[in-house]
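S., here's the first fold you wanted:
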Amino acid sequence: MKKVTAQFGGKVTKHWIEKYQTSPYWKAGIFQNLAPTETALNWRKMPGVICRQIKGHKFGNPSAALEIQPFDADAFLQEAALGKFIWYGHSAILMRINGQTIFIDPMLGDDASPIAPMTTKRFSDHTLSIIDDLPEIDLMLLTHDHYDHLDYDSIQN
């Protein structure tokens, strides 16, 4: 498996900007939300948040890496009356429903957030290595384009 070092993709090209402009939700050079949203950020709390991120806190991380259970492709691909789901943390879910394999928000790379100069270590080691064991994906659903839902390593593999 090739290790990817880039965390983000390339710049938006003129082709894609022209394509975006055909969307009714593209206004004034950006996509507009369908519903009003707030980014309620309390700047007074930011020093404490940053301090906890750097120093850590007793309930912030598990004491040891969380074990990744082996993937049983044969069992996963067997027909079932109900859908099958495997949760890989946060919003990453592998589903099997109506004979189709769907992967929602794959985010299995080593760095859980691209905020330099430090990395955010995942709670499990070698999460990206499970990609090689997964069955063919019929549909990949990316719920939105945040770094943790569009993990470059996962998408490239």
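And the second, which I think is the more interesting of the pair:
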Amino acid sequence: MDASLRISEIFHSIQGESSRVGLPTVFVRLTGCPLRCRWCDTSYAFSGGEMLGLEAILDQVAAFECATVCVTGGEPLAQKNCLPLLTKLCDAGYAVSLETSGALTIDAVDPRVARIVDVKAPGSGEAAQNRWENLERLTPQDEVKFVLASRADYDWAVAACRQRRLFEACPILFSPVAGELDPAELAQWILDDRLPVRFQLQLHKVLWGSVAGR
């Protein structure tokens, strides 16, 4: 039988985050997540969705005629068949990225996939779920994202990057929590500290004001 996954949505949009920001991208959003970050903007993906076989998912992706695919959630790695989906997407010739919380192991992810690991700062309420050993396995094609709600979160993230030598491992992304941390303030801290990180806002929200279906 064709392996299946519970899918929240598959849609075509502009990538709003990471070094791929601005690229037309097909998003495959899987249902379910074991975390409950305080500011989660995709809580609608915690439940529901539709069971689809891998070939049906690939057919929907192919219909958009787009070379770039992002598998996201929820937490996509919470479903075991996420791994064969990633491999099939790579085999089909797509440039594939995976957005993961980092609370689950990334060891078995196809090496052709760019892993975007969202390390949870204390302000999220889920910092205890960080699987730090994941960061020891990162390659230059991977990226680490920190979503920050305060100066305390920022200082924590900088310390984590320095202690774990993340600046040398792969691109690092710093993002402000909307409505909690002034983006200009975060940008100034990065400049003042001469950090080798990418400041980012969620471009899709700048364009459309919502994440759902975009």
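Why I say that: Residues 8 and 49 are 4 Å apart (CA to CA). The chain has one domain: 4-208.

Talk tomorrow,
H.
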